[in-house]
């Protein structure tokens, strides 16, 4: 499995505009991309301008496909000017287990 983490620092006055765009991107990634297995969106409750993503894909090819999807390109374009910083990290999943609810 291939894991991607993203740390966003959102401009304070644009947090409420960013949030629905982020949630829609995550929803569409899970619904439309067979290789996208998990897409968690987390906002820091103490520092609301911080958003963290944890994404799991079948492999790097599935992530590369994600980057080409129309919904991702639209999201990326819309939020680019809303950010003070964006840091993407790529990992190989060695061990993991999702909690069942």
Notes on the protein architecture:
The chain is of the alpha+beta class. Helix content is 37%, strand content 35%. The protein has one domain (2-92): Alpha-Beta Plaits. A hairpin with a 6-residue loop joins strand 2 (36-43) and strand 3 (50-57). The mean pLDDT is 94.
Topology:
Elements: E1 2-10, H1 15-32, E2 36-43, E3 50-57, H2 60-68, H3 70-79, E4 83-92
Antiparallel strand pairs: 1-3, 1-4, 2-3
Brief summary of the model shown:
The protein has 101 residues and is an alpha+beta fold. The protein has helices at 15-32, 60-68, 70-79; strands spanning 2-10, 36-43, 50-57, 83-92. A hairpin with a 6-residue loop joins β2 and β3 (50-57).
Oligomer: single chain
Kindly state the number of beta strands.
4
Radius of gyration: 13 Å
Report the major sheet: 4 strands, antiparallel
SS strand fraction? 25-35%
Alpha-carbon distance between the two ends = 22 Å
Helix content: 25-40%
Using the coordinates above, name the CATH class: Alpha Beta
Structural class by SSE content: alpha+beta
Spatial strand arrangement across the major sheet: 2-3-1-4
**Number of helices, counting only DSSP H or I runs of 4 residues or more:** 3
CATH architecture: 2-Layer Sandwich
CATH topology: Alpha-Beta Plaits
Mean pLDDT: 94
């Amino acid at each position: 499995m291939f894991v991607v983490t993203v740390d966003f620092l959102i401009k304070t006055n644009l947090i409420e505009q960013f949030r629905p765009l982020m949630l829609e991107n995550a929803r569409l990634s899970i619904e439309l991309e067979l290789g996208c297995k998990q897409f968690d969106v987390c906002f820091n409750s103490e520092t609301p301008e911080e958003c963290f993503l944890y994404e799991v894909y079948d492999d790097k090819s599935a992530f590369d496909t994600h980057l080409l999807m129309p919904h991702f390109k639209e999201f990326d374009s819309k939020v680019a000017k809303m950010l003070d910083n964006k840091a993407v990290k790529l990992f190989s999943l060695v061990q993991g287990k999702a909690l069942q609810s």
